[in-house]
Amino acid sequence: MSKLSKKQKLVADKIEPGKFYTLDEASSLVKEITFTKFNASVDIDIRLGVDPRKANQMVRGVVTLPHGTGKEVRVLALCTPDKEAEAQAAGADYVGLDEYIDKIKGGWTDIDVIITMPSVMGKIGALGRVLGPRGLMPNPKSGTVTNEIGNAVREVKAGKIDFKVDKSGIIHTSVGKVSFTPQQIKENAREFINTIIRLKPTSAKGTYLKSIHISSTMSAGIKIDPKSVDL
Prior knowledge:
By secondary structure, this protein is an alpha/beta fold. 31% of the residues lie in helices and 21% in strands. The chain has 8 helices and 9 strands.
């Protein structure tokens, strides 16, 4: 058996095998077991008791984290000229239409979120092959296809994220950075988990929240007791 490094031993001493922690405990512990030299993301994974293959058990939604994600989100607003000033004032990093559509067709995807309008979705539909695999395709359900361009940009910049369950029944997202305080991590995680709870499909039977794990980039996962998170 290989010998544990000093950092691995510190982690092993702090995490008790098989133990379930409260959200309060995990929010502090995730900072204590992170040793990266960069500001690592704090991630959460929730396994749900749903069958994503069934349309009536798909879990998808949006949530605005109280303390944001800690990440600088690069927003492209694909809009008509009359909406450009509104998008720029709201903080969009890139604003335009045809010129950016051409750039994306050429392979440019140096952005995190695209916000657009219903009236120009016909032009953007042709970008599906480029945007779809990267999770960048605008969608009305996530609030990224709207005539309220300014509001949508501000919400994304403030920490609004969209999510959906994958084919394995797991939802994964980031809820902050290790530079956040334990209280900020806890409040962001609780808001996300409670949003998932509110979206429980009526057709889902049995245990809905099967497991919750929180971790940071390259850290061990911490098991959270679902009962420690209340609406």
